[in-house]
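Quick one - first record:
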Amino acid sequence: MCETDKGRFIVDTDMTRRGLMIGLTSVAAATGLPGLALAANVTESDVVVPTPDGQADAALFHPAGKGSWPAVLIWTDILGLRPVFREMGRRLAAQGYVVLVPNPYYRAKKAPVVSGSVDFSDREAMKPVMEYRAQLTDERIDADARAYLAFLDAQKVTNRRKGAGVQGYCMGGPFTFRTAAAVPGRIRAAASFHGGGLVTDKPNSPHLLVPSTNADFLVAIAQNDDKKQPDAKGQLRAAFAKARRRAEIEVYPADHGWCVPGSQAYNEAAAEKAWTRLSSLYRARLA
């Protein structure tokens, strides 16, 4: 799925649904985690979400059958919407949520925006992705977040009386902070997994948005990110304490990217621990 060669960091963006589900199912059997055995009882559809800048392609998931459930938005990592994130959406929906996984780069290209093995050390290969990322200004992220939540709330299967959740990976980590601040009346739970740039010295630093949110947070930090920025976790804790917001902040014994299968950093045990903590957060705040 991925390999290391002279410091290269390679991600396989084409991990198949079958390969991922076999792995997740084995974990479920060993740990007793909920949801995976019910994945077949999930309705999945490709949808188009109206936004101020156009039409965003996305994947929508919800439990099959009659009923209504809380809404959850998933922000992908920098490589965008691809099979592994569809499976995250399916797995989460099986636990009782209406899940939207949008293509963050819809302004430039429909998903998937990359395929095959991606070498992060190859600047030429990464150039298009970095250009797509550069288009995602704070204002656009906020506008997209509002549009995605409005779309979720317009679904008949969404229970709007319950709070909504948001989770993000790598690039999507800080987007969870922005979403919680952009739609504070809806977001009750927010989770960042190996999020990059949660604490900066700039006036738009994500951690400065905490007072504008009404959510409980789960912030799972990669050990190598913590090594590079050891003061960040303390600044995050101080920001949440000052704003009187509840937050679980933990450095995991795994490297940046550990939650996403297909990455050379993927760590199954740490990823399942993070998923368990996410599930607990959603049960507590979105019930």
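second record:
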Amino acid sequence: MKWKVAFFGLLAINMVIVVSLLCLILQPSSTKLPTPKAVKGATFLVHSSKEDVNILLNDYLKEKTKNSSLSYRVWIDDRVYVASQVPLFSRNVDLTVSFVPKIVKGGNLELRDPDLSLGEWQLPVNYTLSYLQKHAKLPDEVMIEPDAHRIYIDLANIQLKNGYRITAKEFDLEHDKIVFALTVPVK
């Protein structure tokens, strides 16, 4: 008779644990993504290549991060790459992170499926993204979310010169086809 009480007690404990885990997993993310600002104006589709986007991207980042202690560079090839050097045992060691880009709501970009390496070592995603989040001076429109294993780029709220806005329409790296919508505001 004691084994029945122990069995049902253990079953109840297991049910509570499973229900608790399901509640935690199924809760929505606490990260609030910004709402794109509505801009009235003329919209043009801009077709580009990876090479042209690399030039524009690094020029923008150079301006935004000129006072940062951690320098990095970004380039687009078969994936989106971010490279930097981190001090380790009085030496600078290469840190490389690559992502698969995906267009999300509002024409913004999400960089997912990170592949991380420090020198020749593969690193845990959470650790490296947390390090980048703490030490890399990023534009306000770039949000690193270590727990979600992604970087969110709020293109719709990046204000270019003269108030121009840009959103992503197509990001096909395999065929070197990148399309943006450029909105020129009118008064």
